[in-house]
Amino acid sequence: MKQTLHIITGPTAVGKTEYALGYAEAHNAEIISCDASLIYRGMDIGTAKPSAAERARVPHHLIDIQPVDQPYDIVAYVRDAEAAVAGIFERGKSVVVTGGSGFYLKSFFAPVIDTVEVSEDLKAAVARLHAEEGLVGLLDELRRCSPAGFGNLDTQNPRRVLRALERCKASGKNLPTLQAEFAARPEPYAAYAKHTILLEREKNALAQRIARRTEQMVRSGLVEEVEGLIQQGIRENPSAASAIGYRETIAFLEGRLKRDELIPEIVQNTLHLVKKQRTWFRTQLRAPDKRVFI
Question: Using an 8 Å Cβ cutoff, are 207 and 271 in contact?
Fold first, then answer.
């Protein structure tokens, strides 16, 4: 029988940590985090990072592996996750993957890394075009590079248009060809079975849980945590500084947000994230093997 990746996901604050711990203990498993913010050391309170006691119960991987001032991307995550999966199975344990970061989660089901290499000079040239002529200029140049069309590209997203133009110029291929080649790449972890559990809560119950958790984070020292992270250079790393809970607290510390606005702002942004996550689970994640309402 194939070894199995047990994948547990769901919207933020739904209760993934607690559920995954019990599930891992029941299945003799170790846990691989699939959360983009848990990667960073020092981002503890605002991420609801598993506690030392929880991590002592079950070994965790891909938590606290990167300084907060140094970016970490999907290429590094795929590399580190593959190594963690292999190591866990070699130890005779089962693998539980848990988290709600969509792109990281998708890396267990579909190719996510682009193999087209783009030089720094080309990136700079395309960035200059964007700065000088905006999205219109990018699209005009992309039409010249890809007369066969744009395929399924979101042409209203400047970042994706910029990336598509870089890839076309670097490869000499049109966009539909590049998209077809990417779609034809093999599924990751094809040697393993995958069992996916989607955790859910009733909408109002989850909203109340988010509000309580946010209040507890602030009482537990979120502001003080972010003050320390600023000293460590979090603002030099957009991926970390833009995480919900951290971007609002940075805004407060910089005087762009009042104290009584901090908690409501975090709660509101978290609810927006939950809405996006639920859409992603519905449209991007293969149908789960099991839905659990908790």
Answer: yes
